[in-house]
UniProtKB/TrEMBL annotation:
Protein name, as recorded: NADH-quinone oxidoreductase subunit F
Domain of life of the native organism: Bacteria
Record domain NADH-ubiquinone oxidoreductase 51kDa subunit iron-sulphur binding: where: 427-472
Keyword annotations: 4Fe-4S, Iron, Iron-sulfur, Metal-binding, Ubiquinone
Family matches, as Gene3D superfamilies: 3.10.20.600, 6.10.250.1450, NADH-ubiquinone oxidoreductase 51kDa subunit, NADH-ubiquinone oxidoreductase 51kDa subunit, iron-sulphur binding domain
SUPFAM superfamilies tied to this protein: Nqo1 FMN-binding domain-like (SSF142019), Nqo1 middle domain-like (SSF142984), Nqo1C-terminal domain-like (SSF140490), Thioredoxin-like (SSF52833)
Similarity annotation: Belongs to the complex I 51 kDa subunit family.
The protein's required cofactors: FMN; [4Fe-4S] cluster
One MF annotation (Gene Ontology) recorded for this entry: 4 iron, 4 sulfur cluster binding
CDD domains per the UniProt record, alphabetical: TRX_Fd_FDH_beta
InterPro entries: NADH-UbQ_OxRdtase_51kDa_CS (IPR001949), Nuo51_FMN-bd (IPR011538), Nuo51_FMN-bd_sf (IPR037225), Nuop51_4Fe4S-bd (IPR019575), Nuop51_4Fe4S-bd_sf (IPR037207), Thioredoxin-like_sf (IPR036249)
One Pfam family from the record: Complex1_51K
Amino acid sequence: MSTITLYVPRDAAAISMGADKVAEAIRREAASHDVDVRIVRNGSRGLLWLEPLVEVATPAGRIAYGPVTEGDVASLFAAGWLHGGDHALRQGNIEQHPWFANQQRLTFARVGLIDPIDTSNYAAHGGWKGLRRALGMAPAGVVQAITDSGLRGRGGAAFPTGIKWKTVLDTPAAQKYIVCNADEGDSGTFSDRMLMEGDPFSLIEGMAIAGIAVGATRGYIYLRSEYPHALRALEEAITAAYEAGWLGAGIGDSHRRFDLEVRRGAGAYICGEETSLLESLEGKRGQVRFKPPLPAIEGLFGQPTVINNVITLASVPFIVTEGAEAYRDYGMGRSRGTLPLQLAGNIKHGGLVERAFGLTLRELLYDYGGGSASGRPIRAVQVGGPLGAYMPESQFDTPIDYEAFAAVGAMLGHGGIVVFDDSVDLLEQARYAMEFCAIESCGKCTPCRIGSTRGVEVIDRIAARLDRDRQEALLRDLCETMLHGSLCALGGMTPYPVLSALNHFPEDFSPERRAPAAA
């Protein structure tokens, strides 16, 4: 009797919906039917409303069923799902699903397809080719390939990756470092987590290539403390990579060395800022450093350091394997390649979509997202985390492009999109932004530490209908001070959601919409 392979995601979203129980139920039911099954705990395909999404390997391809609960397993076996049988949960070949079929998966090409911690399975799907190629190139050639690809930092700042790498390469030092910022703290973002849980070797390979390119022999992944499943996947993958000769001394049968380890974050939003992250990584309180010097010159322990986020580094293997032009051919303007976009909030079909830059917000919200989960009109979307602008319906045709977003006073950031229907109160959302900044501030600079606290107070006075015009003028002036006077992007970007709410949704700040002032 041949073994039948099933894929049950080990992604945190699927686990939260009962994937572990589903996997165990499949084992029990298979044993009762005397069927030999092999269960691979893969990553998520990104259709989060269908999780747990179980795929069955059949002669006709992988057939998906979802969302599967523990109680569905018996009926699935009765329907002959191990041979692709019909069932109410049958989704067909997921790669032909309308959500999936039009995506352009470069960075996420293997996520959901492979066993995340099997080095040979990774290699069978194109893994390690980029690292092998980089080992045969001059370091400057690797850096030039990254520069020519047009890759920009996917963590939010969108700084050209090649420039950062070249600075580290050209800075002489006995020790250099590669640091991965995996402190994914923005609301509505989960692409880093999905990548680390579903294809951790792509991150490991990207960091090793970066080490070869700039002369660094040690790397650290600074992981968000709230990601236990990603921690497990990374630690298992790193151990496997050492055993297979892709980390440590003589990587890929070369004379090069690269060591890598995971460090858990301090649990503070500010540690997602690169210099605060370095302070935390050194065992200090996570506070922002003054710049200059830049981390590329004096970074971790005072040494030249490449700091990139997960998606940036995981994009590197494709670029080095296929060539800079292959990556640069995707996208528009100065935004090259693809971006994993994450749909969350009040959205019918939430999940991850990887597409080249250039599609519009409207396409994402309706062609992929299917509109709001509540069925009410979508009134606003916040893009780029808790410090991103609130974009009204009139801006939904803005293309996904760094410069196009900047032109309308918004930012693309990490690609997280949180959706709100017409029941949202934008004054409350503006207040939340100020309060968030007040709570998460490292306290080093006055505009952020004090300005955010005063901002909450001013918005509360507007809500209480106390001299609305004067309070709005004061709030705008305060935002201007924070925007230009803050030491880092936390205080400097808090004005984005506040001002966008004021500018695009002024009716929510009007006395007519607010409760009467207290007696």
